[in-house]
Amino acid sequence: MGRRRPGPGPPVEGCRVMSWSEVSARLGRNDMPYALAMAVLVNGEMTDADDIAQGVTDAWCSAEWPAQALDASIWWNLFDHAVASPCDYLHDGVARDREELPGPEVTLYRGAIEDHRYGMSWTDNLERATWFANRFNGMSGGAVGKVWQVTVDADVILARFQERRGEDEFVLDPHLIEDYAVEEYVA
């Protein structure tokens, strides 16, 4: 995992260190990703890894379309700042060792149109992936969704969210997912 970056730098002159609760106060759910990115990556207002982990969890799980709210590389940096070690991933707001994952490899599913099959959000719940694949079918003459399957190494997993949104969601490293064969699931 040679992609790790140093932790957040010192605050920009004139900025004070803030907690996630201060940064996110009075924000709408779709404003959280941008505010978090500014506080962590630009202004250096948030420096505590545990607080950043909570901010990443809230921002990702609250936004309607988190992967569209920020560029994938910015999300990667935020997830990276939320954990102290390259061996860790974020699990429901807490940094955990990847050895706690179900295995060294995990098979995951994603419901999406073909152009979006390499997205960051995946699940180990086939029924949930099928729901995502079908939720917009036939609307406005758009493309029909499919269920995609991939088996990834544990180090590709940036986060797992089970307690929020009810999606059994795994967030994958956008830099590494394209190294894997994402194939249409066939029952």
Verbal overview:
With 187 residues, this protein is of the alpha+beta class. Helix content is 28%, strand content 20%. The chain contains six helices and eight strands; from the N terminus they run αααααββββαββββ. It is globular, with a radius of gyration of 17 Å.
General shape: globular
- Rg from C-alpha positions? 17 Å
- End-to-end Cα distance, whole Å, is 34 Å
Q: What is the share of helical residues?
A: 25-40%
Q: Which structural class is indicated by helix and strand composition?
A: alpha+beta
Major sheet: arrangement of strands:
2-1-6-7-4
The poorly predicted ranges are: none
Largest sheet data: 5 strands, mixed
* Beta-strand segment tally: 8
Quaternary state of this entry equals single chain
Annotation field: number of helices: 6
Output the helix-strand order. Answer: HHHHHEEEEHEEEE
In round numbers, the mean pLDDT is 88
Give me the secondary-structure topology.
Elements: H1 20-24, H2 32-42, H3 49-62, H4 66-69, H5 72-81, E1 88-91, E2 94-97, E3 105-112, E4 121-123, H6 126-134, E5 146-153, E6 157-161, E7 169-172, E8 183-184
Summary of the model, kept short:
The protein is an alpha+beta fold.
Which key phrases capture this entry?
single chain, 187 residues, alpha+beta, 6 helices, 8 strands
